Amino acid sequence: MTKEIYQEEEELVGTTAKRGGGSFKDYVLITLIALVAMMGINNYIDARAGSGAGGCGGCGVASGAVSSLSEEELVRIGLEFYAENSGDTEMADVQARVQDFGCHQEIYIYKSGRRVMRIGYASGQLFRMS
After folding, report:
1. 121, 112 in Cβ contact below 8 A?
2. Under DSSP, is residue 126 helix (H, G, I), strand (E, B) or coil?
3. Helices and strands counted in the chain (H then E)
4. What is the predicted pLDDT for the residue at 52?
5. What's the half-sphere exposure (Cβ side, CA atoms, 13 Å) at 126?
6. Is residue 36 in a domain?
7. Which regions of the chain are under pLDDT 70?
8. 116 within some domain
């Protein structure tokens, strides 16, 4: 009598025990959950360590570690770059402004208030930007 009551309770509650271990699908699901958890922990650790994961599209370097040049030095080399590449010999009313993006700096060259050149600086290299 008690065995029949116990079986009826299992059917009502849905607690029939599996025998023989889990299925292949169970193992795949557990593996996927573990992988997602490991990826989340890894991303959290990388972000806390400042590995360049954030800012500027993740340039691959920690923010602020790219250049040891001051803004004044970047202005000077930007103006020199402009003079060499533009053919402008007068350099009348030419100004440069620097913007630091963390993973690279950009030097904007203005002539008579109009931007005429955009120069990038990263990893010790100057390059003209469109």
Report:
1. no
2. strand
3. 3, 4
4. 47
5. 19
6. no
7. 1-21, 46-68
8. yes
Quote the pLDDT of residue 88: 83
Strands (E), 7-124: 94-100, 105-111, 114-122
Distance between CA atoms of 25 and 73, rounded to whole angstroms?
A: 61
What type of residue sits at position 93? D
Spatial contact of 115 and 124, defined as CB atoms under 8 Å apart = no
- CA 26-32-37 angle, 5° bins: 130
- Whether residue 16 is contained in a domain is answered as no
Cα 107 from Cα 117, distance rounded (Å): 8
In a domain, 43, yes or no: no
Among residues 122, 121, 72, 130, the alpha carbon closest in space to that of 97 is found at: 72
* Tally of structural domains, the chain: 1
